[in-house]
Specification:
Blueprint lengths: L43 E2 L6 E2 L15 E10 L3 E9 L6 E9 L10 H4 L8 H9 L2 H24 L7 E5 L2 E5 L2 E3 L6 E3 L10 H20 L2 E2 L8 E4 L6 E4 L6 E2 L6 H18 L9 H12 L5
Catalytic activity: L-threonyl-[protein] + ATP = O-phospho-L-threonyl-[protein] + ADP + H(+); L-seryl-[protein] + ATP = O-phospho-L-seryl-[protein] + ADP + H(+)
Enzyme class: transferase
GO molecular function, one term: protein serine/threonine kinase activity
């Protein structure tokens, strides 16, 4: 007669399997219930790896280490198409850190691209399905538009920065997020950070007003040499970085930059930009002979090689 096959627990007659309850894994990682793939500090790992990078030569303050972490510090601006957040990027264990402006185009269900029909002229995509989706404003199309706006702004800033125009340095572009040079200052005593004011927030005196107009017209000539217009120029899309005299005027919000040569609506966008910003300066006391929109429009059109409208 063959021997009975031994069971694995025959040597331990007192063994009784029992339920122990949920396993506490908090001791396995000192961060407990946090994401073990996340950074040891901050809100996320740096997005530098895998993103599209800004033009060279890069400013020395740009942090490219893959081990850097990003920390959200608050919202700088909210808008219909995008929100701008203040972000600190730093390398843990070192004193390397920098403030950045993170411009994030909104998710499809919240986005309202209400002006893009005219701007899309001359920006056709190769795939007809994608173009139809954007034209019909499907959810897929709005997602494509968000990526296009982010990519368009990043590309425009990269070109203009390389040309030496006064724009924030574009650090990187990752999907619908564009990381930009933060323009502002931090109080050494309180540690409070303030963004550079928009031109619309200021009340410059006569000399400062004239200097800001000079800076603006030089920047517009730089755009025109590229055959471009801002496309949505106003005192709200210009920053004034504190400094000597009136400060440094900086162009911002450039996703809708217009090819005034290739876009059939281009000359009209240029004329609207010039008329709107000249009106702001004249309303604040700049003499008409200095802020003459007709004269400036002719100069810019000649620079771009088009006929003004």
């Amino acid at each position: 007669m063959s021997a009975r096959r031994r069971r694995f627990d025959d040597d331990d007659p007192e063994y009784r399997p029992h339920r122990r309850g949920p396993v506490d894994v908090s001791d396995w990682d000192e961060r407990g219930d946090t994401d073990i793939d996340g950074p040891p500090e901050g809100d996320r790992w740096s997005t530098w790896d895998g993103a599209t990078h800004g033009p060279r030569p890069r400013p020395a303050w740009v942090i490219t280490e893959h081990g850097a972490v990003d920390t959200e510090l608050g919202v700088l601006k909210t808008g219909k198409e995008a929100d701008v957040h203040l972000l600190e990027r730093r390398v843990p264990g070192t004193d390397r850190r920098v403030l950045l402006a993170a411009k994030r185009y909104r998710a499809a269900e919240h986005r309202l691209f209400h002006r893009d029909a005219g701007y899309l002229e001359g920006r056709r995509v190769r795939r007809s399905r994608e173009m139809r989706a954007m034209t019909n404003r499907t959810a897929f199309g709005r997602d494509l538009l968000a990526g296009q706006w982010a990519g368009a702004e990043f590309a425009a800033l990269s070109v203009l920065w390389a040309d030496g125009l006064p724009v924030p340095y574009p650090v990187s572009c990752d999907g619908t997020e564009v990381l930009l040079e933060f323009l502002g200052s931090t109080d050494p005593e309180t540690g409070e950070t303030a963004a550079a004011p928009r031109l619309a927030q200021l009340r410059p005196g006569p000399d400062e007003l004239a200097d800001l107009w000079r800076q603006l017209t030089e920047a517009l000539h730089g755009l025109a040499r590229r055959g471009w217009a801002h496309g949505d120029l106003s005192a709200y899309n210009l920053l004034v970085e504190p400094g000597a005299g009136a400060g440094r005027l900086v162009l911002i919000d450039l996703p809708q930059v217009v090819d005034i040569v290739g876009n059939p609506n281009g000359p009209q966008f240029l004329a609207r930009d010039v008329a709107r910003i000249a009106e702001w300066f004249r309303a604040r006391g700049l003499p008409d002979h200095l802020a003459d929109p007709d004269v400036l429009l002719v100069e810019l059109a000649e620079e771009a090689g088009i006929t003004p409208r």
